[in-house]
Amino acid sequence: MPDGALPVLDVKGLKTVFRTRGGEVHAVNSVSFHLQPGELLGVVGESGSGKSVTMMSLIGLLPSPPADVREGQVLLGGMDLLRATPDQLRAVRGARIGFVFQDPMTSLNPVFNVGNQIMEPLRKHMGMDRKAARQRALELLELVGIPDAARRLDDFPHQFSGGMRQRVMIAIALACNPEVLIADEPTTALDVTIQAQILELVKELRQKLGMAIVWITHDLGVIAGIADRVMVMYGGQVVEQAPVRELFANPQHPYTRALLKTIPKVSGEREGRLQVIEGQPPILSAAPTACPFRARCAHAFDRCHRENPQRRAIGAGRVGYGHDVACHWTPEVTHA
Amino acid sequence: MLDASPPRKKLVEVKNLKMYFPIHTGLLRRHTGDVKAVDDISFDIYEGETLGLVGESGCGKSTAGRALIRLYELTSGSVTIDGVDIATLSAEQLRLKRPTMQMVFQDPQASLNPRMTVSAIIGEPLDEHTTLTKAEKLARIYELMDAVGLNRNFANRYPHAFSGGQRQRIGIARALALNPKFIVCDEPIAALDVSIQAQVVNLLEDLQEKFGLTYLFISHDLSMVRHIADRVAVMYLGQIMELSARDALYADPLHPYAKALLSAVPEPDPAKAARARIILQGDVPSPANPPKGCNFCTRCPQVIPVCREVQPALTEVAPGRFVACHLVQPTALTAGPTGGTEAKEHNQQGATR
């Protein structure tokens, strides 16, 4: 991605803390990223790495309390969403930023037919009347590849299969032509053959509509297939960020390296014993004063226990634009 | 873990296993149909091997695994484990047989009693099936905790104090308690994070080597099955579509469904992401009302008229490769020197050797 283009979404130093009875949980720590027009940014990490919380913090989807978005800036075309009024946020959600959640079963309302659920954002945000909204809903269902769309418009969510429900969710998210689509593990609950269908659909829609997409997943295989750029999260922080081919060919952070080695492959040479990352993910009970990966890292040295590494660029370029990593151990220049 | 080793002993023989769940409708709750979760499958598992059972959700793989150790009453068919047909055993005979066959469940959260300590959970099978003294039992519990890599000091803690991966280790220790020969692993890693999955899979492999265990490894994760299994059975809508040695299957799947399934797995390599994918249309039909003919005929990209009429039998089309498809015939393949022995027998693979 060229440096020049103005990002559609620019997140700077986002910090989210949950206040619970057991103390604070620092779920997101100084996360910064940006999204270029038409780009697909993949966000990978294990459960608890803060990837979903980051995205939900952006548009105020976390209930507060317990969540507290403490610091940072989320710029959507010049407006800071963290300082926006509830009304302003409401005008953004569903209109300028679309959301697709993991479980299509629980994110659709079972007592409304899908037509009404697709029409809702159209009528709220675009001020369409029933007739126009219904027409547009029909187009959207056809766009996401639901056969016999005119009849299915009056069906209820339970009458759709998992893959079809996820298509309906995508139709809702796309209804108002959002600038940004945030997809939070949209294919995790689906079977592989259905997942392949949805991935094809998203590739096709990107070409047709050209919106920017944030795709959250823990599946590196999915990321390899669709992302332009990848952000790896661990312990509430961004540990590495790079263009997709660069990340898979030349991973820098010990976590990314280990992660790529722990997953077996379906083709090519069959690996011997699987490499493991020993230990458990960290408990984020305090603001980090050291590297979150230190306890599981094969290369950790004393500095890793004293100081939380900052993201720094690998090779040429700025942090966030080329390849960057947050690690003390990674050599300064690894490119030949 | 050899692919084609000399005569091996069959530990588990499954013949024409059917598992139907009745559907009752109407005011009188009349029996109006069946969900054919597992519809006539046959296969063998050899001693010391890992048979992978893969398929999409709802294909009947978990039901098959549970039926195999008779957690359900079978609709019909036989399951012979270590020389005994467990399908016909009485309740007491079955109870005495239980120590040889155990299970590791998918969800370590749901399969461990939250009000029992770890030592009580691991010790429960010992209470039921052995006459060990208290001290012997505790020694055995510690031994098992060591074997699965749990800290002995945590024996008196409750499941909630453990992470997902550790909980799965508790479940594995419980399954090992009675020195079983055969363990059904029903999606043992599906609920775990990627970095923890490898830990549990390595543990299962180590234990297999150490105790000479035989596994049925049920999973929807085709990459992990390729790693752990010696042979792999692919299920679709209650039936086995293909059963082949692991390397043969992954290198060259023969059944159209196996082909589509393998091509749908996203590869963690952007360079390979552009490879041709077979995208199946539509969804899996309901097992309560499977299509006539081949179960896969509604989505098969290579469907021919006969597929909608006649159900293909699982046939040995090449040495050690069993496929249920009209398009894959033994004659169409170079079946090698054994090409003459036509495996006509319906669903009797293994026996045709």
From TrEMBL, chain A:
Superkingdom to which the source organism belongs: Bacteria
Domain ABC transporter: 12-260
Alphabetical keyword list: ATP-binding, Cell membrane, Membrane, Nucleotide-binding, Transport
Membrane topology annotation: Peripheral membrane protein
Keyword Cell cycle included in the entry's annotation: no
Location(s), subcellular: Cell inner membrane
SMART domains, per the entry: AAA (SM00382)
Keyword ATP-binding: yes
Chief place of localization: membrane
One cellular component (GO) term of this entry: plasma membrane
Molecular function terms, GO-annotated: ATP binding; ATP hydrolysis activity
InterPro entries xrefs: AAA+_ATPase, ABC_Ni/Peptide_Import, ABC_transporter-like_ATP-bd, ABC_transporter-like_CS, Oligopep_ABC_C, P-loop_NTPase
One GO BP annotation of this record: transmembrane transport
NCBIfam families, A to Z: oligo_HPY
Protein name: ABC transporter ATP-binding protein
Organism annotation: Fertoeibacter niger
Lineage, uppermost ranks: Bacteria, Pseudomonadati, Pseudomonadota, Alphaproteobacteria, Rhodobacterales
TrEMBL record, chain B:
ATP-binding listed as a keyword: yes
Main location: membrane
Keyword Metal-binding applies: no
One Pfam family it belongs to: oligo_HPY
Similarity comment: family membership: Belongs to the ABC transporter superfamily.
Domain ABC transporter span(s) in chain numbering: 12-262
GO cellular component labels: plasma membrane
Record-given protein name: Dipeptide ABC transporter ATP-binding protein
Superkingdom of the organism of origin: Bacteria
Region described as Disordered: 334-353
This protein's UniProt keywords: ATP-binding, Nucleotide-binding, Transport
UniProt subcellular location: Cell inner membrane
CDD domains: ABC_NikE_OppD_transporters
Its membrane topology: Peripheral membrane protein
Record PROSITE patterns: ABC_TRANSPORTER_1, ABC_TRANSPORTER_2
Molecular function via GO: ATP binding; ATP hydrolysis activity
GO biological process, one term: transmembrane transport
